[in-house]
Design brief:
Arc Repressor Mutant, 40% helix, 143 residues, alpha+beta, Alpha-Beta Plaits
Length: 143
């Protein structure tokens, strides 16, 4: 984790968020006991940075799984997700699709290959509009 900045090191930023996302975030920071949104946002950014750094260490031959939740009704998303997966047929072993609600779906994708390829497919999937979450979990392949 990154150390907390001193008051003199703080920078102010403005962001725009969908109302429902901000409401969910406010619920979580209240439940977790944060003193302010800023504290929650700083913690979320630290977590995002730690995750990015962990992803940077995914190297070599790996076995993995991607879990993804997305909005089934997002225009063009299903075709884009299919196209991305076809681009990585050499590392995708299998996938499983589940309907969560009428609008939301979950996909589980089993992978085996070079860690950089596994990271790249996860990053391409998570950058798509309508994808709510993508989690990549990998382990090194050892003889």
């Amino acid at each position: 984790m990154l150390p907390a900045p001193s008051e003199s090191e703080l920078s102010r930023v403005g962001i725009s968020l969908p109302k429902n996302l901000l409401e969910k975030f406010d619920e979580i920071i209240s439940l977790r006991g944060y003193s302010s949104r800023s504290e929650g946002i700083r913690d979320a950014i630290r977590s995002y940075i730690a995750h990015y750094q962990w992803m940077a260490d995914v190297k070599g031959e790996r076995q993995g799984v991607i879990t993804m939740v997305y909005d089934h009704d997002q225009r063009g998303l299903l075709q884009t997700l299919t196209d991305i997966q076809h681009d990585y047929m050499n590392v995708i072993s299998a996938s499983l699709h589940a309907h969560i609600t009428h609008d939301r779906c979950m996909e589980v994708i089993l992978l085996r290959g070079d860690g950089s390829d596994l990271k790249h497919i996860a990053e391409r999937l998570m950058s798509q509009r309508g994808v709510e979450s993508v989690k990549l979990t990998t382990i090194p392949i050892r003889d």
